[in-house]
Known about the structure:
Layout: E1 32-33, E2 46-49, E3 55-58, H1 59-63, E4 68-69, H2 71-74, H3 98-103
Antiparallel strand pairs: 1-4, 2-3
Amino acid sequence: xxxxxxxxxxxxxxxxxxxxxxxxxxxxxxxxxxxxxxxxxxxxxxxxxxxxxxxxxxxxxxxxxxxxxxxxxxxxxxxxxxxxxxxxxxxxxxxxxxxxxxxxxx
Length: 106
């Protein structure tokens, strides 16, 4: 899909600290089972994603609907429910580690 008359340009500059390369083994793990143990909040914990356009549900329904943590658990690639001030397409702001603390019990 898409509009063929629009040129392919980046929405914004890529952060030079974001050097993911092809090996993500030293980044946040993905495709791991989200368990409600003592280090994680229960999947039934309420959460709101996005700010300008938002959606409310649970961690299980909005962040780990398949039961595993994926890139899309934190990032909204279509920017539908992303935080408007974020350049990383985050579903929840990470001010004061809010995104991390949504799932990680500290």
